[in-house]
Amino acid sequence: MANIQIANVSKTYAGDIHAVKSVNIDIADGEFIVLVGPSGCGKSTLLRMIAGLETITSGTASIGGKIVNKVEPAERDIAMVFQNYALYPHMSVYANMAYGLKNRGTPKAEIDARVKEAVRMLELEPYLDRKPRALSGGQRQRVAMGRAIVRKPAAFLFDEPLSNLDAKLRVSMRGEIKQLQKRLGTTSLYVTHDQLEAMTLADRLVVLNRGEVEQIGTPLDVYHNPASTFVAGFIGSPAMNLVNVEITGQTIAFGDQTISVENRTLPQGKSTLGIRPEDLRLAQDGSGFAFHVDYIEELGAQRLVHGHASGTPLTVTLSSEVALPEDIRLSVLAEKLHFFSAETGKRITA
Amino acid sequence: MKRVQFSHPYLPYLFLLPQMAVIFIFFYWPSAQAIQSSFYLEDPFGFGSTFVGINNYTDILSSSEYMRIAWFTVWFTVLVTFFSLSIGLLLAVKADAILKGASAYKTLLISVYAVAPPVAGLIGVMFFDQHIGPFVKFAALFGWDMRIGINYYDTAIAMITIAVWKQIPYNFIFFLSGLQGIPVSVREASAIDCRSGLRRFWTITLPLLSPTAFFLLIINMTYALFDTFGIVDTTVKDKAANNPITLVYKVYMDGFRGNDLGGSSAQSVILMIVVFVLTIFQFRFLERRVHYN
Ligand SMILES: Nc1ncnc2c1ncn2[C@@H]1O[C@H](COP(=O)(O)OP(=O)(O)OP(=O)(O)O)[C@@H](O)[C@H]1O
Ligand SMILES: [Mg+2]
What's the whole-model pTM score? Predict the structure, then answer.
């Protein structure tokens, strides 16, 4: 068990590619941190620098208070789970799990006990003697997990471990990983581009964009108080609506319509208004602003209504039990409005 | 798979004919001829032949000269195979470490090596030239008076070195592409699981290279046994008497120089049997340990 400190870590690849730019993250002992962001934002690069598979251009990474920049991967006391599992194809399931321990000189009896325990936890007993190629994707994923677990490392590093699985298996494995991590209490750093996976797994989220940290916080904190338009658009599905507005007094103007808001001080002048689809309501008796429906997605209990208001595209989540009137007018919840700087995209805190 | 229906039922056989003819003319027919003539004593001047049963075989197997050459061939094959495989592998591992990701560089390197073997063979022979060969001069610096074509061991060393030298590029290419075929993430996983690079090589890299290694083993043994004919010929320079030669070279000498067609045929039949047994052995016992992906 250990804490991990990432201090001012940058990575520059040959050809002046700045994959990671001065990242700072403090990970507490036993914490489950998820790195999330779009493809190419530098998540894997950051993780691999902590694993020791990539050199750190500048800054320091410490595990358990010890700077590991120059430490070999095998000596960092970490275990990694790869996207394509990276099992040793010529070894049985048992040998795959035992390999790391054997090389560290763990006594045979101890290895056996640890592998048996992991295998029981992961329900892999029937497959101990099989080679990886005789396993399904989900089983391989479990073996990869087992290989990490038996080591009892200071930290687990996961690089999109579920993205090769089908949707259903992904959800169940997600739950298993979360439970396992809670049970073992091992510090974990998990990379994914799937914001839902990130939300459900993380104790804290780190949202990365173009190699830079946009926001660090608990999933709910990030969801309710996104630090920038990027985070607002990335976290949450369907994505938050972003509208360019101009505010004078208590009136928000966009296109040729206005919204009046009470009980809240508003940032004056031009800004970007963010509002989640579930925070838009059907307005009663002619109040609110006009909204034109383009198409509707039925999700069962809810429906996603896609449309536009004064030329601005908007998505609204409505209960499917409510009948849609002929002329739709929408209203907003004042306390659920988010404002972002029109220039920098950063959150404006009133 | 695409199925083609031929309107004429014999047409496919007609297409197969050239290939079958080649195999027949260059393999089955000479083999049958060899087996047949190995039971005859051929008149050196071409005036008929006498059936002598297994006499040719007993003569060969009781000849101490033949046994000496057979032993040399065994050593020659083992040494050439061992050194060309291990040096080829070593170079491939070194190149692979540098090549990670640099694919343009890789193509360049491989294309250079692809044209190399014939040239390398020529250079190898020149290296050991008695008069201008740098290797001979180099040996002389240490007081080693190499007398290639005259001293048995000097000649043997030159022969083995040239044969190894010539085969290395071939092994290098195959090992390199084998190494490049090992998934990066598997190597990375092993880097996390095992500190010692040497140990990783033995426990991960080599087992994953085993299909390549097995293929090359067979190719290299066949090479050492048969394809080194030219090297033997240039090194011993027609003076086979006190020089090391391989069994294939002896087949040629006895058959074409000594005009002993019967004995020479019996020798080639023995060689055929040896290769046959060797191949069966390799596939039965070694291939089991090969991991195909
Ligand atoms: N070896 C390399 N050489 C040069 N550039 C690289 C190298 N590896 C990654 N990059 C670049 O660094 C950036 C970050 O890559 P990285 O693999 O960390 O992205 P990622 O966030 O993991 O994306 P994904 O979700 O697609 O896996 C990318 O722009 C990528 O092109
Ligand atoms: Mg990645």
Answer: 0.83
